[in-house]
Design brief:
- This protein is an alpha+beta fold.
- The chain has a single domain, classed as Arc Repressor Mutant, subunit A, CATH 1.10.10.
- The chain contains 4 helices and 3 strands.
- A 3-stranded antiparallel beta sheet has the order 1-3-2.
- Helix 1 packs across helix 4.
- The chain is globular.
- The mean pLDDT is 87.
């Protein structure tokens, strides 16, 4: 079964996969005033990214195994 995602969700997951991102960075970089463009929330709801607390760092957003699989499936 092929796993596909819309291009913005895929771009977001790829961006997070480079390194875990601070929650504040995710909010400021990917926020939108359009309620129909909830890119990072969609990625979290689909299980591609998750919130984690890292000692000495705090709350971060990191790619899950499902997110890694999504990237591989889509050639990223």
């Amino acid at each position: 079964m092929s796993e596909t995602a819309d291009p913005l969700v895929l771009d977001f997951v790829e961006w997070v996969a480079r390194e875990p991102r601070a929650y504040a960075e995710v909010i400021s970089t990917w926020k939108t005033s359009c309620p129909r463009l909830t890119i990072w929330e969609d990625a979290a709801d689909r299980g591609y990214v998750a919130r984690e607390t890292l000692p000495g760092v705090g709350l971060v957003i990191a790619v899950t195994e499902g997110g890694e699989r999504l990237l591989r499936t889509n050639g990223r």
